[in-house]
Amino acid sequence: MDMVINSVLVSSAESGDVRVLGDLLRVHFPGAVIAEMSDYQALPGEKDPEESTLRLYLEWLPAPQGVSAKLGYRGKEYFLTENLPDLVFQEEPVNQKRRLLRLAVYRLIELASKEIGEITSPSPWGVLTGVRPTKIVHRLFEQGFSEDRVKGHLINDYGISPEKAGLVINVALVQTPYIRGHITTTAHAAAYTAVPAPKTVSIYIGIPFCPTRCHYCSFPAFSLVHYGHLVGEYLHVLSREIASVGLHLKEMGVSVQSIYIGGGTPTSLSAGQLDELLAVVEKSFAFSDNTEITVEGGRPDTLNKEKFMVMKNRGVLRISINPQTMHGPTLTAIGRKHTASEIIDKYRLARQMGFAVINMDLIIGLPGENTEILKQSLKTVIELRPENITLHALAIKRAANYGKSAVVLPDPAEGKHMMSLAHQALQIQGYIPYYLYRQKEILAQSENVGYTLPGYPCIYNIQMMEERQTVIGFGVGAGSKFMCPQEQSLENIYNPKDLGVYFNRIEEIIATKVDKLTAIVYNCL
To answer: Which of 246, 368, 401, 511 could anchor a disulfide with 284, C-beta 3.0 to 4.6 Å?
Structure first.
């Protein structure tokens, strides 16, 4: 049945409740107006607003704290009271109250959805709408809870399905040895005991150029057809940013654990340009033991033997060759200019060149694809046996071409089945999940998951997602995360997304990074 709910109106004694509930309600009522009941006015020309409006009444109960919730729609009413249980895990009071409110509304929606077809099925991620659900698991493990206790909390106190709870726990267990200050994966409290850690950071370097722009892409990326004349100037300015900040890191005794060169498509650079960039990286940073360097090859039409040789000679250990799909008609439809056979050819060439770790991305839910097409893509990629396979559930972003036009996607039921099929196919073949994140407007309320063969997880991906280490971003649109473990604080800053602004403000950008790093190094590392 088509969604007919145009608005969800909330009545509550607490003024901030609508804001707290906003993302959760948008998950279950996509496209609907979410507003305070007293502030709402029917849209001009709206037909039968009473027939398309859902009303939610909330009342906070006295100690022991709880929430009384009532949902009204088309003359039917549903009631639920959620009381705060005797919790044994540590939680900030404000976060506890917000979670209780969201849990009450989530369970009320779950109750009503069994009878009201216009309400979407509850999300398997319960009340969680953020990007990084693994953070909760790490926090609970830090408090000494067993896997069973953590799973129980995720299911009972966050509304997460048993399947997703198991997935996120497994991801956290793989990540534990790689996170700053962690020394073991056994006896969970001990696993998070801080040890004197070396002064280390990770690095992201953005190359925002592509042969063409894929229709699903929302990253800052510029077509070489229109912006190719700016590549030389960009690399000059980028090299200055890297060298200047790198010098200060060296002076402060900071080494680099992992480097990720992404984009865009870094291998859209010529072999000479790529070599010059990697030479600047090599000269600018002090590498730690076994520093991991990743280059996103991305599109096979930008790869050749000469570029592979450049990367090998400059110490690149990990590359990505990302098909997104192995279905030819879909490759054409999403704006790619290569075939599935080219993907296989470049993968085999990379193996011949001796790359130890290769990642391949697949996007689940691309327009025109279904379960049978996905099965074939999975079969082809798994047979190649890359060390890493990353599953991305399609998320429609406003900055992408797909976000500006109507596209036909798999229905939620098939999308859910496709994601489940992909997870099962990889796990059967010995792949284990090692990092996970979620996005808004994501297919079937699912998730993006990186899988690895045992012993080959990408350190950068773990550090970037779990935010336990300072990550410095260089280039257009790159974000930096300045982490202070002692204060449990995190500050994000971003470079400009516009090429001209980035060029003109480079001295200011460098100075800001140096100031932030100086404070972090001397106060936190």
So the answer is: 246
380 vs 374: CA distance, rounded Å: 10
The tokens describing 162, both together, are 């048993």
Which neighbouring-strand residues pair with 348? none
Strands 448-452 and 388-393: antiparallel
Phi and psi based region of residue 178 (left: phi greater than 0; alpha: psi -120 to 50; beta: remaining): alpha
pLDDT > 90? residue 458: yes
State the pLDDT confidence band at 309, using cuts at 50, 70 and 90: very high
Instruction: Answer left, alpha or beta for residue 293, where phi above 0 means left and psi between -120 and 50 means alpha.
Output: beta
CA dihedral (301, 306, 311, 317) positive or negative: positive
CB 140 within 8 A of CB 150: yes
The least confident of 220-224, 377-381, 467-471, 492-496 is 220-224
Tell the burial category of 87 from Cβ atoms under 10 Å away from its Cβ (0-12, 13-18, 19+). exposed
Residues 211, 213, 219, 223, CA torsion sign:
positive
Which of 264, 218, 210 has its CA nearest to residue 401? Answer: 218
Of 140, 163, 37, 158, give the one whose Cα is nearest residue 102. 158
Query: CA 184 to CA 182: how far, in whole Å?
Result: 6
Share in percent of the chain as helix, strand, coil (round to 5): 45, 20, 35
Percentage of residues in the chain having pLDDT higher than 70? 90
| pLDDT exceeds 90 at position 25 | yes
The whole-number pLDDT of residue 167 equals 98
pLDDT averaged over the chain? 90
User: Would you say 259 and 294 are in contact if contact means Cβ atoms under 8 Å apart?
Assistant: yes
Structure confidence at residue 433 (pLDDT): 98
Q: How many CB atoms lie within 10 A of CB 289?
A: 7
Has residue 59 got a pLDDT over 90? yes
71 closest CA partner among 46, 39, 97, 108: 108
